[in-house]
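Model it.
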Amino acid sequence: MKKTKTLMAFISLFIISLGSCNDNKEKQAITDIVIYGGTSAGISAAIQSARLGKSVVLLEPTNRLGGLTTGGLGQTDIGNKQIIGGISREFYQNIKKYYEDSTNWVWQLQSEYKDGGQTRSDKSEDAMWTFEPSAALKVYHDMIKNLDIQIIYNQRLDRTTDVQKTDNTITSITMESGDTYYGKMFIDATYEGDLLAASGVTYAIGREANSQFGESLNGVQANDTTQTLSGGLSVNSRNHNFVQGVDPYIISGDPSSGLLAGINPTFAEDGSGDKHIQAYCFRMCLTNHTENRIPFEKPENYNELNYELLFRNYEAGYNRIPWINSKMPNGKTDTNNRDGFSTDFIGENYDYPEASYEEREQIVQKHLSHQQGLMWALANHPRIPEDIREEVSRWGTCKDEFDNEDGWQQQLYIREARRMISDFVITQKHCERIEIVHDGVGMAAYGMDSHHTQRYINSKGKVSNEGNVEAHVKAPFPISYRSIVPKKEECSNLLIPVCLSATHIAFGSVRMEPVFMVLGQSSSVIASLAIDEGKSVQEIPYDQLRKELLNVGQILE
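Modeled.
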């Protein structure tokens, strides 16, 4: 068969054109693999690229590597730890080695720590799955320090102009700083998918209608819906909701007073699609150790009316703290959303994926203020039951985790943003193994998990949340090679391990940090093979790719 030379031909022509520029102008270096986004996927891709002998540049839009893994999400969601291989498992093995060093136990004796999270780290395992953000950051830096990886911080893609392409091949990307990076292959490892969008790759935002892909868990999910799936029962919208009888109006019982903030006045047909995405929050790293604790403070822009639904929920009979407080080493926690009114800022993130950087920052700050106000109210407000206030007051942010003096991180929990639409789309049927692909580049095993996407008035005239889905998968399922590469006619040298091609509900299963690391490593292997073979990222024979993935420790079945 005649080898495809289109991609390398374009790159060769591009190199020649650079060489013919003004002799006084320094020739631009062309990197083998340019990675945009220093998330867990980006770090994994960079490590693998360097190990394969490829020149690699890792561009991180902020001043901190690791995304959510170093940003508070230390309680690892996986589903089945046996599917995690390669660099991803190396990371968790290194986490275990980190905590085997007694000097890393500052606020707690190692013997005092008991893992109480959903993903327990058994003593017989070779890895540890719960960790402090600072520990993850230290491990990542240790993993990359002896590798030839050029890491450049505070480099945000210039989204006001399209990336430079020759036909369907990216030749360079330019940052807001004016710096331009030339590469043979590119990887978009961001949570937002900014590079894929700027490259002209087709994508989706929001929930597809169930009818589009023959699903049952996508689209609007009616309150109190329970479905039977091949993997077991799925409870939709019933969880993480208000107790019965919480009034939605500013003046209770008076519709003319208007709705409280964040309540959608309309509600679409069950199963229909919309532009709503899973709610965002900050995964808090808290401590009750007095010497390391920063008490919750009332934000300057605190508006008590924004927490009226919280107060009314308690007054209607709610009786616990609205958080999941998973234990972490050194007397800390990974604290996440729970119940009807919690850290998830429902409905306030719809514009985030497409927003400008300035608009995104405003959205992030609004989320931060919401969560800071929530924690202050839980710890101090007289309409909160006294026992709740006493317990929440024992906790606070950590002095030794993040750069901000108030102990809050900069990384928002972006559960979902853009999702590529390639020639293959992962759906609920793949998660349930009703349909099975045979070109896997990694595996997923977590349940199809969606947080709420909107707050609305239910049939009884009271407030409810909608969009939550918790559907177990009965067994791990493979993630298709075709789901992390764009349509060839759109881009021939770009890989997308995070904002991959999946429906809203299928993405809810795939979107776990260990899986993103797996897919980042596989993306790097594909990029390297494409360079070596002079092919597009879509053209690598799967038998050849599979062999290379197994050689680097990936688990594919």
